[in-house]
Amino acid sequence: MKRVTNETNVSVKFNLDGTGIADSTTGIPFLDHMLNHGLFDVHVRATGDIHIDDHHTNEDVALAIGTVLLQAIGDRKGINRLCDFSAPLVEQTPLLKESYSHDKDDLNLNSNNIDPDL
Q: Could you tell me what reaction this enzyme catalyses (predicted)?
């Protein structure tokens, strides 16, 4: 599966019935690391505008993997929801700060991409 946009160029090979073999080069070390934690085989090659920000590459890799995953599971018969999870986005950090009365040091946010004035 290939996904090419103005910001990224992504190629994904995916085997749902694999053994956990991951071979990913996205330019984003944390994303490459996380792609190593599935019981499927995934091969990802991605280039993008990470010199500006990594969100386009993350987004397009996720869309490409989602596309091949949907193709792999077919009609979804026999697939049931096991759990549900939600997590706050970085953009919600000011709301969390207000809601839970934490200051920015208590939140322990260590990304260079987070506004230091939060």
A: D-erythro-1-(imidazol-4-yl)glycerol 3-phosphate = 3-(imidazol-4-yl)-2-oxopropyl phosphate + H2O
- Under 8 Å between Cβ of 16 and 73: yes
Instruction: Decide if 93 contacts 114 (C-beta within 8 A).
Output: yes
pLDDT digits (tens, 9 = 90+) for 48-104: 999 988 999 999 999 999 999 999 888 888 888 788 777 766 665 555 555 555 455
Side by side, the strands of the sheet bearing 8-15 are 2-4, 8-15, 41-48, 22-25
CATH 3.30.230.40 region(s) of the chain? Answer: 2-73
Q: What is the pTM of this model?
A: 0.67
Q: Is residue 85 classed exposed, middle or buried when 0-12, 13-18 and 19+ CB atoms within 10 A define those classes? A: exposed
- 17 contacts 38 by C-beta, under 8 angstroms: no
**Under CATH, which number does the domain 2-73 receive?**
3.30.230.40
Cβ–Cβ under 8 Å, residues 47 and 9:
yes
What would the pLDDT profile of 8-48 be if each residue is shown by its tens digit? Answer: 999 999 998 899 999 999 999 999 999 988 889 999 999 99
